[in-house]
Input
Amino acid sequence: MLQLEEKILRDGRALNEDVLLVDSFLNNQVDAPLMAEAGKAFAEAAKGLGITRVITIESSGIAPALMTAMALGVPMVILKKSTSRILNDDILQTEVFSFTKNAAYQLTLKKRFVLPGDRVLLIDDFLARGEAAQGASKLIEQAGGSVAAIGIVIEKAFQPGRALLTGKGYKVISLARVSKMGEGFIEFVEADA
Ligand code: G4P
Output
């Protein structure tokens, strides 16, 4: 998505070789028209996959996921991050470790918002090591759905997330793929949409 790459070059900042700051349009402030375009791009790339539901992880995945759900005309469901395990018949949880934040959390799905047979487009803001996407996919599958594709706004292509997910047979659709970054430069490889 050329418009997204241009935005990253204009308003993003590589804090170091690993972390890309995009707080002005994705993480803290949200560029709604850009998210609408991201939603259309995901919807177009997922055409023909029979998506029945868009699922995301709070909080920064919500904006692009909502726009994608709107473009596809399907419901959007949010996986929450909980600090503790909850014992409840309607809740599915799995532990996810974030290497970026060096902390673990309980990824939490309310089961009744995934129906058996649902074909899910999972959306998240960043793909780093793929831990969050892998945990989310596990919960969706436990609830009886299948993950038809995983849509990522910004993939850090120099980290192993894509290899982990494609190795497990998931289709990854990234709108921007950062191959290398550092002080004053951000480089891309070809994106999926
Ligand atoms: P992984 O799931 O692919 O293994 O990624 P990881 O745990 O390392 O990432 C955890 C959090 O850090 C996620 O946010 C992710 O969006 C964010 N993140 C990872 N790399 C970057 C980066 O280079 N720049 C920015 N801005 N964020 C990054 P989160 O904890 O889910 O936060 P939020 O969704 O509540 O904002």
